[in-house]
Amino acid sequence: xxxxxxxxxxxxxxPNGTGSASANSLIMxxxxxxxxxxxxxxxxxxxxxxxxxxxxxxxxxxxxxxRTPIFDMMVAMNSATYEKDIQEVxxxxxxxxxxxxxxDERLRRHDINFIGxxxxxxxxxxxxxxxxxxxxxxxxxxxxxAALLGMDTDIIRALTKEKYSKKQSLLESNDRAIDLGxxxxxxxxxxxxxIQLETxxxxxxxxxIDGNTSASLGCVFAGAxxxxxxxxxxxxxxxxxxxxxCQKYRRDPETKKNRYVILQAEDELAAIGMVxxxxxxxARAFTPTSGPGISLMNExxxxxxxxxxxxxxxxxxxxxxxxxxxxxxxxxxLMLCAYASHGDTKHICLYPSDPREAFxxxxxxxxxxxRFQSPVMVLTDLDIxxxxxxxxxxxxxxxxxxxxxxVLSAAELDxxxxxxxxxxxxxxGIPYRSLPGVHPKGxxxxxxxxxxxxxxxxxxxxxxxxxxxRIARKIQSAALAVPAPIVHRRAGAKLGLVxxxxxxxxxxxxxxxxxxxxTPIDYMRVRGFPFGDEVxxxxxxxETNYIVEQNRDGxxxxxxxxETGVPKSKTESILYYAGFPMSxxxxxxxxxxxxxxxx
Amino acid sequence: xxxxxxxxxxxxSLRKNALGLTRRDYEGAITTxxxxxxxxxxxxxxxxxxxxxxxxxxxxxxxxxxxxxSKTPAYFLRExxxxxxxxxxxxxxxxxxxxxxxxxxxxxxxxxxxxLSIGLGQLCHAIRRNVNLLYVLENNGVYGLTKGQxxxxxxxxxxxxxxxxxxxxxxxxxxxxxxxxxxxxxRSFSGDKAQLVPLxxxxxxxxxxAFIDVISPCVTFNDHEGSTKGYAYTREHQIELVQADYxxxxxxxxxxxxxxSVKNVLLHDGxxxxxxxVAEEYDPTDRDRAYALIRERQRxxxxxxxxxxxxxxxxxxIEQSEAIAEPVYNQPFENLCPGSAELEKxxxxxx
Lengths: 599, 351
Description:
The complex is a heterodimer of chains A (599) and B (351). With 599 residues, chain A is an alpha/beta fold. Chain A is built from 19 helices and 23 strands. In chain A, the strands form 5 sheets. A 7-stranded mixed sheet of chain A has the order 11-10-12-13-15-14-21, with helices on both faces. Chain A has a 6-stranded mixed sheet with strand order 3-4-2-5-6-7. A 5-stranded mixed sheet of chain A has the order 18-20-19-22-23, with helices on both faces. The longest helix of chain A has 21 residues, at 168-188. The model of chain A has no long low-confidence stretch (mean pLDDT 96). With 351 residues, chain B is of the alpha/beta class. Chain B has one domain: Thiamin diphosphate (ThDP)-binding fold, Pyr/PP domains (Rossmann fold). Chain B has helices spanning 38-52, 68-71, 90-100, 112-116, 120-129, 173-179, 193-205, 231-237, 287-299, 317-320, 340-346, and strands at 60-64, 81-84, 105-111, 133-139, 142-143, 149-150, 184-189, 209-215, 238-240, 242-247, 262-266, 272-277, 303-310. In chain B, helix 1 (38-52) packs across helix 7 and helix 3 runs parallel beside helix 5. Chain B is globular.
């Protein structure tokens, strides 16, 4: 069998809470620094300690980053899942296991290769204390993999040195553990295996980052000064990221005081209320949450929509309904976010596909929220938010200035004869806004009850409807301001495929494979809501459009047909909603299934 | 237009405050509450308090939730921004607004349904955070807008207008606030302007959350025999524990009380709260005793009023957050965005 250079995938199975994360990121970073495109997917339980967790690493010289269902190698470090893990290795693949204990012969497969490394035994004699032995066992398997896959050991050394530069004893332990695994494998097996790494030059201008970190960085760069939140998986690390960056960049150099306020709320109802209060008072404010939080925020979102108060909400989606599977990914909140709250509402939504867009759209969200004086939802998901993605470096244009929208200054108010909050002065559907504490002429009464264009309370049907119709026009006009869809047409394509968010990686790979196989398909990835004409035009230009998304009910498909008027008969759903990131094969088999049905 | 703007007619002989404004300048739209509603008396006391303190109306943000009480911010300070938010969620709006702009003078008006049922959690956590906010709970023991259901502050054994007897215990907001660590807790009666106005002024001067529970009878649904929140009942059972007098910074403190019975509390803005103990042995800076005394009076069927507890030096929310002295909302962008060079440098961490 020929070697698979820089094109394979492997999976590491460990019990949760044993400290495998640092070993896994050491492996990821080493491959990345060898210049080889790599992605990692952490499949973890809703648990602090004990339940099984897996880490999948895909190495792909062509830069495909979607999850792959085929594993060439399994590092089986969790006895509880051993049996299942062994089954997951492809025929002819490899299984690395801890040979301190004899392998149960009933589990042996004869079509794969077993690589036993006495990790526990080696660590027991090399390290003292239970904790260190457990931790170093993980680092030792990283050392074993370094030999088996042909990792650059200089890079590993450099990484441990960077990481533990201030903790000499930890550095020594880590290096020793790496050597244990590395040397044992070198002495006992032919290294490297046919699945192997070879230095490339494809990651020079890239970084490895998760979307929660990049989105929080976007909030810092956009000038957000108030963040309110209630901890919820998988969004929690976003506020932790914001706090960390603010401590670095937002301390007044002289007074050491903070140029930001973070409010940990008592629940999501309060978190969104604080964001609305802060935005109403003129701050750029945001809240990160997940589906259950959005459910709670519905009432306040309707208020912000109707009273026209900016707010930026990040929904790092997880599986629903209800508590669902908190540590699994899904795109189940597309409909909820688009029309959150009772009555007629519609919200501006942004759909980043990776951590780079999460950064960029975070910035865009604040501009849009203030420009349109309305909530803006940024929908990522657990896969984008918490997994490490290889993306082109983030860039920043120093000429950027925030679009604070139509906010009247004290001087402008002073010059006005009179101010009415909801008058459509410029005939663009967007009224002028004033902030509290600025000028007596700016005063108005913000309310979620019926109001007329002057801001006064009303129960008059015509006055009420006039305001509501203007708001509808205003939100629809945002279709031109949200990020435009990405459209990629291929010569000879008769079919269209539409997707959203993190499915992009799987769709891109699937479409390339199908095109190479003689089935070119046009592609559109929507990036913002409300949809513009371009979205309708794409759908209309194909007899059949596959709509690829991660939920049961085809929510994107519903949104597309509802909002564009394109008949549902022109669309076919391809769905995957089991809670893991999508793979190219989900897309391809979905297309094939409908094609078979049609013929 | 179905809301009523109040004509701004000034009588030339109206008294002016230090800003040259008359009390009329601190009023708002004409009330749409029932004639004789206790809430309107509270509104009048608020007008008086802001006028007395020479506060520029536009520097105030007046916030509320939903209910009869929550309508009242429309009836005072027409030159201040108002925010009539959603039911029970005024504290969150106030918290956010205060975080964005620490210079705003925040007054929140709520009711017993708004604060003690749907918004109980928000009230508790705003108290815990010590948001710099004057929180006025207009307490009538009843849901007025939905026509007479018991609220969570309705006393055990009191009857509704329809004659139903309330079998549940009441939430006493003052005891609740003290137990949560509130830094300013007072109780008053809408019909007692002489007591209420100084309390409101002291609450405005207090740094942190000043909680004032004002018994404010509902003339339509809770002013009958069997009600414990009506005018007659409250007048009869109100026991003043402490007489509060608010003395602004620039006024000289003169002692016209018996030595030993007067306690001066210095507020953060330099003003003084002068308290005259009506009940012996009452010390409003002793949290445990304050709690015990309110309970004791309650057992006697009395409503203890006045300033019940104060801790003038506790850090408020903004101080706890260690934010800069200026409001964060209008910081220059250069002070907020790290810029491209920093971004480039930072990204070495992600390789």
